[in-house]
Amino acid sequence: MRFMMIVKHAESSGFPPKPLMDAIAKLSEEAVKAGTMLGSGGLGPTAQGARVRLSRGQVTVVDGPFTEAKEIVGGFAMFEMQSKEEAIKGALRFMELHKEHWPGWEGETEVRQMFGPEDFPPKA
């Protein structure tokens, strides 16, 4: 089963401390070697982004920063896991690194199962 883990936090959190990034790099290396991590990445600030929206038949582009955002997606990782429980254990381990290496930081990791073509039967 594929899962995406999405890290959310206040944009005002700033950049993570180096010891946290080193610990995440080690955790990621272990997951890649085990064959469970399919990909990951951290995201830049919203000031460097844009939103492309379709609303009422019109497509518009809004450049960042997005002042109305209370929390942002700060990063993601995709995993191949045996179960939702295994994915949650991985997210717990990831968040424990934040607790240890970035005291006072607050955020969450959302764990979501991903769907692929095999999850949708062909139309008759």
Outline of the structure:
This protein has 124 residues and is an alpha+beta fold. It has two helices and six strands. It has helices at 18-34, 84-101, and strands at residues 2-9, 37-42, 50-55, 58-63, 72-80, 107-113.
Account of the 3D structure:
- By secondary structure, the protein is of the alpha+beta class.
- The protein is 28% helix and 34% strand.
- The protein contains two helices and six strands.
- It has helices at residues 18-34, 84-101; strands spanning 2-9, 37-42, 50-55, 58-63, 72-80, 107-113.
- The strands form two sheets. It has a four-stranded antiparallel beta sheet. It has a two-stranded antiparallel sheet with strand order 3-4.
- A hairpin with a 2-residue loop joins strand 3 (50-55) and strand 4.
- It is flat.
- It starts with a strand and ends in an 11-residue tail after the last strand.
- The model has no long low-confidence stretch (mean pLDDT 93).
- Report how far apart the termini are: 26 Å
| Helical proportion, percent range | 25-40%
The beta-strand count equals 6
Strand order of the largest sheet: 2-5-1-6
Kindly state the mean pLDDT as a whole number? 93
Count the DSSP helices: 2
Radius of gyration: 17 Å
- Give the biggest sheet: 4 strands, antiparallel
Order of H and E elements: EHEEEEHE
Point out poorly predicted stretches.
Answer: none
Strand content: 25-35%
Computed structural class: alpha+beta
Shape: flat
Labels describing this entry:
124 residues; alpha+beta; two-stranded antiparallel sheet; 2 helices; 28% helix; 34% strand; flat
